[in-house]
Design brief:
Elements (H helix, E strand, L loop, with lengths): L9 E5 L3 E6 L7 H9 L9 E5 L2 E7 L4 E2 L9 H21 L7 E2 L6 E2 L5 E2 L1 E2 L8 H22 L5 H11 L5 H9 L6 H4 L5 E5 L5 E4 L3 E5 L7 E2 L11 E6 L2 E6 L6 E3 L2 E2 L6 E2 L5 E4 L2 E5 L1
């Protein structure tokens, strides 16, 4: 089933080696978008090639270097599904930031999403000159969430807790694509593999009296409820996303997330990219606040 907002102005078809779109009216061809896509060839979007067919503009997309999503049916692990869906959202978001090509010209049909050998996502954008309206934007929004649901259904991994949460958010009308993308970036759809058999630790506030229970496989700490799983209270020096505590190989670790005022364990700064194991009795300092690990 097609989820392409612009399907009424093109005729699509495919062979084993290429996907093509023939414009119903050549005036819909958008030369600027075509040049932009040519410059991005080999990146997130599959390069397209313009030709003529019976006097009409035809845009072809070679597929020999890619695999269909369907070819992975039942083979993808939950973390792969999350990775693929996150990349789809990133690709769409990059178009929104560009501003020169309407996102509605991206084909969100399930069979128009392709993967390379490393499970990198490659998508189809047809360089069309259209006007973006609230109606086309809403159609694209619905197509986006419908695509995610279809990917999850065909991946056959709906038993995973994180995948179930993502699926439900896409099915419920109150969750926008921007909300879902933010949750993906915040890793709020952590899969069962990442959750592992995480235990729990308690952070007892020495300077602010706040006690925190960490019983997740990954927990972001900071001052913003929008970005953090656990909100740190009592100091304006804490960053929105200050640090994260995560469970790996039977052990809790802490990592600084590029905070302005740093994270410390037992007085030693947690350097960028460094994971520090945590033990009972350790003192964690988040900016100017201290917590004891119990």
């Amino acid at each position: 089933m097609s989820s392409f907002v612009c399907e009424s102005i093109v005729q699509s078809g495919r062979t084993s080696e290429r996907l093509y779109y023939t414009l119903e009216d050549n005036s819909f061809f958008y030369q600027t978008a075509y040049k932009i896509l040519q410059n991005q060839a080999g990146d997130a979007f599959i390069p397209c090639y313009k030709s003529a067919w019976n006097g009409k503009v035809r845009l072809s997309y070679p597929l020999s270097a890619y695999h269909t999503l369907y070819s992975y049916k039942g083979q993808l692990l939950p973390e792969h599904v999350i990775q693929i869906i996150t990349e789809i959202y990133k690709n769409v978001d990059s178009f929104k930031m560009n501003g020169l090509i309407q996102t509605e010209t991206i084909d969100l049909s399930y069979d128009a999403i392709f993967l390379d050998d490393n499970l990198g996502v490659h998508m189809i954008c047809v360089p069309l000159a259209i006007s973006s309206t609230p109606e086309t934007q809403m159609s694209f929004e619905l197509a986006m969430k419908s695509l995610i649901c279809e990917i999850i259904e065909k991946a056959q991994c709906q038993q995973d807790e994180g995948i179930i949460s993502l699926y439900q958010d896409c099915r419920e009308g109150m969750n926008s694509s921007d909300d879902i993308f933010l949750n993906l970036k915040m890793k709020k759809y952590s899969t069962g593999v990442n959750r592992g058999n995480a235990q729990r630790i308690r952070l007892v506030g020495i300077t602010n009296g706040q006690n925190l229970i960490i019983d997740m496989a990954e927990c972001i700490l900071g001052k913003s409820p929008e970005y953090a799983h656990k909100v740190i209270e009592g100091s304006s020096s804490v960053s929105r996303k200050h640090c994260r505590i995560f469970w790996m190989n039977g052990q809790f670790y802490i990592e600084d997330m590029g905070s302005l005022n740093h994270t410390y364990v037992n007085g030693s700064i947690v350097k960028n990219g460094e994971y520090i194991p945590l033990q009972a009795g350790d003192v964690i300092q988040i900016a100017d606040l201290q917590y004891e690990v119990q």
